[in-house]
Structures are given as structure tokens and as C-alpha cells.
Prior knowledge:
Layout: H1 16-39, H2 42-65
Helix pairs in contact: 1-2
Amino acid sequence: MLIKSRNSEERPERFKALRxxxxxxxxxGAVAGMAMYFYGNRTVGTxxxxxxxxxxxxxxxxxxxx
Length: 66
């Protein structure tokens, strides 16, 4: 007997595509920020990493809103 969870197929995820794009931008921003931090200007690297983290927080909020 298969037991389906309440959220499995009854309601499609509204923000899935947006969340995926935000995750991709976050990952690219985090890697670029780390590269800038270690090999370039540390202040700019820190700002890029913090901006990427803001995008990750937005993605987490969208995940909780589903």
C-alpha cells in the first residue's frame, strides 16, 4: 500500500523555477565572492558573499511559503 504525503502531488510547487534560479545565482555569487576574498579585494569579496547570502535567505523564505 502506497502512502502519499499531503504535499506530494496535490499542489504543484509555485516557486520551484524561481527557487532554482536563486540557488544558481547564490552558488555562483558565493564562489565568485570567495575568489575575490582570497585573491583580490577582501572588502569587495565580503560584499559579494553577503549579497549572495541575501539571495539564499529569499530562497529559504519562498521554500517556507509553499
